[in-house]
Amino acid sequence: MPDHNELALIDWIRQRAASAPSLQLGIGDDCAVWQPSGSPLLFTTDVLMEDVDFRVVETTPQLIGRKAMAVNLSDIAAMAGRPIAALVGVALTKSRGFEFAKHLHEGMQLLSEEFGVAIIGGDTNTWDGPLVISVTLIGEATERGPVRRSGAKPGDWLFVTGPLGGSILGHHLTFTPRVREALELHRLVDLHAMIDLSDGLAADLHHLLDESGVGATLFEDSLPVSEAARRMTDGRSSLEHALSDGEDFELLFAVSPSDGEKLFATASGVTATRIGEIESQPGCRIQMRDGSLRDVPRGGWEHSF
Amino acid sequence: MPDHNELALIDWIRQRAASAPSLQLGIGDDCAVWQPSGSPLLFTTDVLMEDVDFRVVETTPQLIGRKAMAVNLSDIAAMAGRPIAALVGVALTKSRGFEFAKHLHEGMQLLSEEFGVAIIGGDTNTWDGPLVISVTLIGEATERGPVRRSGAKPGDWLFVTGPLGGSILGHHLTFTPRVREALELHRLVDLHAMIDLSDGLAADLHHLLDESGVGATLFEDSLPVSEAARRMTDGRSSLEHALSDGEDFELLFAVSPSDGEKLFATASGVTATRIGEIESQPGCRIQMRDGSLRDVPRGGWEHSF
């Protein structure tokens, strides 16, 4: 059975739980009870593991909790959905104690509240092992439906919502999931396909191309390379970092050229940079500044050279 | 980014994924998309951790996967809901390889299918740490609504659906979650309050009593003590095991005396043993065979003597 500290922590979390109009029953019974509105529901889950997704000594428990919520919000954003509720499972390292667990929860809750998400349930455990956090996020599709990875068409323009690469230097803990941007884009234009960049531009673009049955050419000239990517000192170029580094958590999406023009002409409040074009020819290429074409393999160049 | 083995495993899982009429989009995009029927939804999540909830050397990966699904099914049963879909997050120990992961998934999938549950999404990771499995289960309330912990009334009879204690000897890995029993009981009688026994009869009964604002007396004579509880050789009595041991995963429920009589009179196919009575006097007592009354503290006697 749960020990005294686990029960005290669960009580503390329960007292802080937000209510929500559709929530018939929150933390404290065998299940949460939620009345759906009738819209299609979106479900996503992500597990964060100590020393894989974060290092406890290099950050704060608040930022770890924040990241656990943020990566899931990013998945809901990738479908242009509205996040609504979350369940949180944790395996807490006993020796770190109650205060650590509270800060972790605070980090999750602050970001949840910012995005209108109620934490409606969970499972709180302690053990002698490393910290593991599993968040399941529930969202709703808007009246325009969920945006999939599979609808990109030859001729479409490819956009990203922000600079890429070097996320390991800090962005992976502090990024803002592009939920609002996705909803605004979904309202403005017909999003043919979208994905959030978690594995790296090259890998995630390949996922989108595979699902859509198309290829693409990127333009080196237009690729937004982050300051952090330029600060990396491992001998790889900033372009390589922008293509290969994971955890940018920006959105990559494809729209028709006319919708692309519309994005340029509209003061939408969403930063969107055109980085390439969808083509019927399979695979992914990049047009370099010198005019040459270079293959972009699935893992970026990192794993190939 | 995910390594080759992770991607191969995700592909393998995706190919085996069941379809379901309400599932608009399953494994393979940023989120699963599910069309709810309109009934209130039930959500529960449980995290199983190596050497806390199972030992890899003492069992099979199939049974570990089965347990991860079964404990969540038991939570849906506790609300008398219908389970419908699951998301599975895992942190797999790299050195155990692909076959271990497949067997783990098979164990989850076999039990899911038995209960009509579609695995609609997840997050598959490998690391050098111990095995962690997090399952989130989604269910629907029936037209009679979800059964909470909080509705027990003085005079109600208390029932359990099976023998208690000694689960550690094997039952915790092989138990059948009482989903069908709960639905049948919910159809037959007015379930005032229900909980599944995961922390042990004493602890879970106290949860139910706290939420309902009542007390209870148990009858030693009627308590179904499992064979396993009698086989335990740690010097504690089998009664102590039945009261204190966790992971029975039977249902504990309260009904009116007339509904209790109805359960005795009906050939329902559900084993239900009357073990006590709800009273207005707070706390929990047990009437011993010799007629004496003894307090049953929250943790059973285990933590008190």
- Helix content estimate of chain A: 25-40%
In one word, what is the shape of chain A? globular
What kind of oligomer do you see? Answer: homodimer
Number of domains in the coordinates of chain A? 2
Structure description:
2 copies of one chain form a homodimer. With 305 residues, chain A is an alpha+beta fold. Chain A has 2 domains: 4-141, 60s Ribosomal Protein L30, Chain: A; 157-295, Alpha-Beta Complex (Phosphoribosyl-aminoimidazole Synthetase, Chain A, domain 2). Chain A has 9 helices and 13 strands. The first copy, chain A, has helices spanning 4-16, 61-78, 97-114, 171-174, 179-188, 201-212, 227-231, 238-244, 257-265, and strands at residues 23-25, 32-34, 41-49, 81-93, 118-127, 132-141, 157-160, 193-196, 215-219, 251-255, 273-279, 283-287, 293-295. In chain A, strand 12 and strand 13 form a beta hairpin. In chain A, helix 1 (4-16) packs parallel to helix 3 (97-114) and helix 2 packs parallel to helix 5. Chain A is globular, with a radius of gyration of 20 Å. The relative contact order of chain A is 0.16. The model of chain A has no long low-confidence stretch (mean pLDDT 94).
